[in-house]
Amino acid sequence: MAEDPGNEALGERFRALPPVDRLLAGLSDLPHLVARDVARSALDRARALIRAGGQITEDGVADIARRLADEHSLQLMTPVINATGVMIHTNLGRVPLGESQLEAVRRVAGGYSNLEFDLVGGRRGDRYARARRTIAALTGAESAVVVNNNAAAVLVTLSALCDAKEVLVSRGELIEIGDEFRIPDVTASSGARLVEVGTTNRTHLSDYERAITPASAAILKVHPSNYRVVGFTSAVTTKDLARLGRGRGVLLIYDMGSGSLDDANEGWTAGEPKVSHAIEHGADIVTFSGDKLLGGPQAGIIAGRKDLIDRIARHPLMRAVRPGKMSLAALEATLTLHLEGRRNELPLWRMASATAEHLEERATSLAQVLSERLNDAKVEARLVAAVAGGGTLPDTELASWAIAVTHPEIGAAEIQRALRMRARPVVGRIEDDVVLLDLRTVAPEEEAVVADALVEILN
Ligand SMILES: *Cc1c(COP(=O)(O)O)cnc(C)c1O
């Protein structure tokens, strides 16, 4: 091989590459171990380029290293301004927490706490006792436990109560929530056997009645959170399912998803089933998320009959899905806000209850300020539709106001990317080649950051 002139030329180009140490000099802002890794990766890429017949200068290698270093600085989770208008945004961390929720986390996160310690008796305590009392007061349930998220809540409930037995689910409720959370798969993972009942659009009480056998452990009712079956449809009420279950010795488990607590039955959550109604109508167990309509941290809440909650709490899986102190502190604070009628201190509820008139005012004045500061770009206030998101309220849209941004030379996709790549990233959406920044999900104090970003990108 040595006589191959091609290989010799390759070797020469390899030898001309800068040594790692010289690249490291330009990466002194990174921790040494990371800088070394970045320098080596840059050299690997340069060699690959040479092998593919290309050429690269020392500056070229340094540029690659710099780009890799910049990517590294994006590897820490970072706050993002949500200008999408999607209030419960799973990819952007579901919902923001408010001051009292954050304060609850701050109080316990920096030190030790009574997370699982009984201060009166001086011995091991119950991690869930505080949340349990508030959940019971809010929902009317006898007892409750908390896990990592609602997916875990469903899994551990079915595992503890239905293992190796049958679970009846309507074919209209065999849902996929997103990120591969599918009711048939979760049921299978729990060890329970899924029995499909009824049809996609209509399931009757008699369908359930006929499907119950001595091997049946429970009926699982699932709130089809992220879609609606409309038209010639029929589903069985919680009350009827509970009555049937009690008569035949099977449990009623209700995966409610969004966890709507308010029973006033008004406003933007009017269409969602209420947790307290499900308990009152006889569901033995309900499960719901902490970070959907509850407006709190990621968590899954399991509430219902005390004997069943005790069984769930003792199941070995509980240990694998238990929440940490920061989540529980934030959840306890969230539940307290609901209990004390201080829901409007939850950022989600503040966002949802902002009036279209108020948002129009904000959008109009921001557009005006920007029009004065921008050279060629055009900015105007525009009426748009915001959504709840997170697989909740799929057919509810809230009138909202956005600023619509266009530039004669810079395309919408490019503007959007530049906004995303800022030190304080701004995430918006594009409609008809126009960048829309929806103010319903942007906090008033974030407006100045959005404005500065647009001025720097577009002028
Ligand atoms: C959202 C949802 C889930 C998953 O909840 P996570 O808290 O995201 O794990 C499960 N079931 C239903 C009906 C849902 O709406």
Structure description:
The protein has about 450 residues and is of the alpha/beta class. Helices cover about 40% and strands about 20% of the residues. The chain has helices at about 5-15, 20-25, 30-50, 60-75, 100-110, 130-140, 150-160, 185-190, 205-210, 240-250, 275-280, 305-315, 315-320, 325-340, 345-355, 355-375, 410-420, 445-459; strands at about 80, 85-90, 115-120, 125, 145, 165-170, 195, 215-220, 250-255, 285-290, 300-305, 380-390, 390-405, 425, 430, 435-440. Strand 15 and strand 16 form a beta hairpin. Helix 3 crosses helix 4 and helix 7 (about 150-160) crosses helix 12 (about 305-315). It starts with a helix and ends with a helix. The mean pLDDT is about 95. Pyridoxal-5'-phosphate binds near residues 150 and 258.
Summarize this entry quickly.
The chain is of the alpha/beta class.
What attributes does this structure have?
459 residues; alpha/beta; Aspartate Aminotransferase, domain 1; Aspartate Aminotransferase, domain 2; five-stranded mixed sheet; 42% helix; globular
